[in-house]
Amino acid sequence: MRAASLRLLTIAALVAASTTALASAAGAAPGTFTKITTPSGATKTIQIKAPPAITTLTVSGQASSDVTSVDIDCILVSASGPAVTVLKAAVPVTGNAFSDVVTIPNLIANCRMRAVPHGVDTGTEYLGAYTGPILYMWAFVPVKDGSTTVGYQALAERGDGIALATDAASCGPALIATVAPPTMTVLGLGSQACTVALPSGNVTTSGTSTASSIKVSGHNAYLPGAISTYLRGTLALTLPQPALTTSMARASNGDLTITESAPLRRCSVSDLYPPTLVSCPTLTGTGVTFKRVTSLIRGSHQVRVRDTFTSTDGHAHPVSLQYLSQAEAPDAGAPGYLFPGRAHFVTALPDQVITGLGTKAATVFIRSDIRAFEGEQSADTRALTWSRAPSKIQFSHVAPTRQFATPFALSVPSGGNAYLGFAVSDANRTSEVKPLGALATGEMMNTPSITSPANHAHLHGHSITVKGGVTRGANGLPISVSVNGHAATLTVVSAAQATYKVTFS
Questions:
Q1: Is the pLDDT confidence value at 53 over 90?
Q2: Residue 456: partners with Cβ closer than 8 Å, 6 or more residues away
Q3: Strand partners, 466
Q4: 308 to 97, 187, 303, 311, 475: CA distances (angstroms)
Q5: DSSP-assigned letters across all residues of 312-368
Q6: 141 CB contacts (<8 Å, ≥6 apart)?
Q7: How many helices (H) and strands (E) are present in the chain, helices listed first?
Q8: Which of 100, 182, 424, 504 has the CA that lies 20 to 30 A from 166?
Q9: What pLDDT does residue 184 have?
Q10: C-beta atoms surrounding 67 within 10 Å
């Protein structure tokens, strides 16, 4: 199989890694070798610190007697040849050993670390004699407007996957790339492959935004990130910048969980769009707070998103939303879409509307190149799973049709919550993504359990009592349960659990 073209992962708030090709030189002598012993093991995962902090790593190892100095490189192999990030040049070798502290660039795609004899051409020489671990990165970086946090960018690399996420107003999960160790070729990654984002404007058939992508009780509403980039940035309105509250936790297996929250705000005078200094001299609350919990899981092949809308003013609120998604730009051809209930991938046209999506949790599959055969390494398949179906899929006005909106209408009860859940999964083969989509769909609404009667029990008489439990899913705790069409009595035990009971003939 041919290797895919190189696509290096970048995060806007971080300084991109410098990639340097070494000058061509004479090859090393027969028997030449190096071996990195620190960090030990086949892999090493490090945290990339936000500027101005510097991420460093001690690298030590051994070398054959004919090696006098080494370059500590991180090498990413692609179809066009190896891309080399030089972490430290000309580290001296003394007594067949070397050791130095190297500076890790603010972000580089995962790569294999090697101590290459200084002067060896990594583009033409054999690299197998220079052994070292695969270097994985993880990062969580707040994005600020002045001193105020308005967003974040997070990265998790594990196994053969890379997961990237930003705040809901910016891009949402910006993709899951597929990686093929040990050559570490990065596949299927576009810098704008956003999904489940809530940007400042919506997607319309005219191609021009006419309202915010969030409306609360009919008012255009904005997240802190949209206020920063759109109201204060694009429109240059002199508005105070509200903060986005963020937190991050990293599990021992490498999973990242990020929580972001903020009250949704609207313009104080009117809902004119785009807002002006007259219609929007200041911002006021909508009575609804937004919260998103994002999890980068399953070997960094899946990002799970759970959005909560909470009433904070004692009133019920209708909330309308247009989540923006975007397929990856194919190397050739066009993206293909496999919609729920359909049998085959199809292309999409500008302004095309897809309906008949049902009401339940389901998955749409997106192939980056509809013409690519299964397993072609320059293409991949993504799965977008939702906890409840949108009213439609609305494709953008401009070709190529990679952007589409999924509109939702929620009812936030007085003093209560409304929920939406999403998951984005990615792999090279469609056959590898479909099981991930099935897992995500199943997790959107957990199956009720039956505790009584027991499985295979023999029942006597003309009536039966069925008991069981339900747990909270992406849509929150179920509000009703029926057994064979009979409504059960639901008893809430906690915010995450309830029991049910029903008796029928």
A1: no
A2: none
A3: 502
A4: 55, 33, 17, 10, 9
A5: -SSS-EEEEEEEEEEPPPPSSS--EEE-TT-SS-B---TT-EE----SS-EEEEEES
A6: 11, 13, 14, 48, 50, 152, 153, 154
A7: 2, 33
A8: 182
A9: 54
A10: 22
DSSP string of 123-134?
A: TTS--TTEE-PE
What stretch of H or E contains 436?
helix 430-444
3-state secondary structure (DSSP) of residue 479:
coil
Mean pLDDT calculated for residue range 113-127: 92
Give the amino acid at 270. Answer: S
Whole-number pLDDT of residue 433: 94
pLDDT at 56 over 90: yes
Q: Which two tokens stand for residue 376?
A: 């072609």
Residues 404/390, Cβ–Cβ less than 8 Å: no
Cis amide prior to 52 (ω within 30 degrees): yes
Compute the chain's Rg from CA coordinates.
26
Distance CA 321, CA 22 (A): 51
Structure confidence by residue, pLDDT tens digits, 211-263: 999 999 999 999 999 999 999 999 999 999 999 999 999 999 999 999 999 99
Confidence at residue 185, expressed as pLDDT on a 0 to 100 scale: 58
**Amino acid, single-letter form, for residue 50:** A
pLDDT, tens digit, 9 for 90 and up, residues 103-118: 998 766 678 999 999 9
Burial bucket for residue 95 (CB in 10 Å: 0-12, 13-18, 19+): exposed
Q: Which two tokens stand for residue 193?
A: 């492959």
- Cα of first residue to Cα of last residue in the chain, in angstroms, is 62
Residue tagged 């000309």 (tokens): 90
Strand order in the sheet with 245-250: 245-250, 256-267, 283-297, 302-311, 417-427, 381-386, 362-367, 336-338
Q: How far apart are CA 271 and CA 267, in angstroms?
A: 7
CA distance 48 to 319: 37
Q: What is the pLDDT of residues 428-446, one digit of tens each?
A: 889 999 999 999 998 887 7
Distances, alpha carbon 154 to alpha carbons 195, 295, 300, in Å: 15, 10, 12
Lowest-pLDDT choice from 37-51, 291-305, 368-382, 409-423:
368-382
